[in-house]
Amino acid sequence: MGAATVQARIGTGASITYANAETGAGYSREDSLAGTTPVPIPTTTGTNFSWIKSFVLYVTATGTTTMSNRRVNMGSSPAIGLALFFKDVAVASYAQAASGNKPADSGSNGNTPSGYTAMTTSTQQWDNTSVATSSTGANGDLVVTACGVDNTFVGGPGSATALPSIVCSYDEA
Fold first, then answer.
1. What is the mean pLDDT of residues 110-124?
2. 3-state SS of the chain?
3. I want to staple 16 with a disulfide (CB 3.0 to 4.6 A). Which of 11, 91, 117, 151 is the partner?
4. Percent of the residues in the chain that have a pLDDT greater than 90, as a whole number
5. In the chain, domain spans
6. Do residues 161 and 82 lie in contact, with contact meaning Cβ atoms separated by under 8 Å?
7. What gap in Å lies between CA 91 and CA 59, rounded to an integer?
């Protein structure tokens, strides 16, 4: 049995285009791997959200196995006032990141957006379908993520804000 070569990729564009996301992604309010339009820090109680980031496990060299039990977690805890969120979305239901489909900003600190799960440092499953690795391309569903910034965040705005690494894992047999 030969294992596949798999890469974490991000989907962007009106028709999904995948790019390597293993060197990092920046949360912003634009449709790109590392945008520069910052998420504003609320000046009063509330949480503002980034535009969505759609990640997928992508087979770059085929194998004779199947992948299942796709999981996500943060590599460490974020700074106070920052949080990451995720949800499972079928590749066929991909939506380009835009202001109209970002999670709605909230008047509460630490708010989890509707339809999302708060990401933790423990692994959490987003997709358990079993998909063969015999073809290159997206394997399984997207994990759609967003970053929330609430008014307790004491860091400054912009790209200098460090977020924890997002860890995607899976079973292959």
1. 97
2. CCCCEEEEEEEECCCCEEEECCCCCECCCCCCCECCCCCCCCCCCCEEECCCEEEEEEEEECCCCEEEEEEEEECCCCCCCEEEEEEEECHHHCCCCCHHHCCCCECCCCCCCCCCEECCCCCEEEECCCEECCCCEECCCEEEEEEEEECCCCCCCCCCCCCCCEEEEEEEC
3. 11
4. 90
5. 5-172
6. yes
7. 14
Cβ-based neighbours of 64, under 8 Å, separated by 6 or more: 1, 2, 133, 134
4 — pLDDT class (breaks 50, 70, 90) = very high
Query: What is the Cα–Cα distance from 81 to 164, expressed in whole angstroms?
Result: 13
* For residues 79-90, average pLDDT: 97
- Sequence length of the chain is 173
Name the residue with tokens 């590749």. 91
Q: Structure pTM? A: 0.95
